[in-house]
Amino acid sequence: MKAVKKTSEKTHSETVKLGKTETKALNKSETKAIKNAETKQLGISPSRAKKIKHGYKVKDAENAILLKLKDGDVVIEMFPEDAPNHVARIKELVRAGFYNGLKFHRVIDGFMAQTGCPYGTGTGGSGKKLKAEFNKRPHKRGTVSMARSMMPDSADSQFFICFGDCDWLNGQYTVWGEVTSGMTYVDNIKKGDGPNGAVSNPDEIISMAVIADL
Length: 214
What we know:
The chain has helices at 46-55, 84-95, 183-187; strands at residues 24-25, 64-69, 72-78, 106-108, 112-115, 124-125, 143-146, 159-162, 175-181, 207-210.
């Protein structure tokens, strides 16, 4: 999935598109899904768990994500009222451990940082396409939106976080969340110096978790 920055010279006509028309679906053996039984859980008291959740000051812990980056924690609050199917799928993938360790393979300074490809190339996904849920949420600094191909209903697991306002994307991509804390850490994600923002030795998602599960 690709994202191309709009410039004042209008040298780019595309926006957040895939490198190819279709993404590659992973075979079950290749997915990053982790069975709950295989993950190690730290034992903490209910009161401690409640304190941790409240520490992030989110409106709804069930619809908020903690994204851990190399420089610090980022909180993303989701919009289930505007993109219910996307939010449900993102939470499903997060809870399976799908995003842990994935690379920010395409990062354009001043525009956006894109991740969610299991191959780290922008050509892969989880294998489940989502019907578009375009909404009236604007693409602005901190917006979290789904990448897709030329086909509207082709979003899968790849998403991008906007560094700044990107009005030309409005109504064309499904906005499902917004960074409400830690945007400065998003700003520090390594930028690409290759074609269309391709990144050499890219930064990775350390982990993603639904805050209600902490």
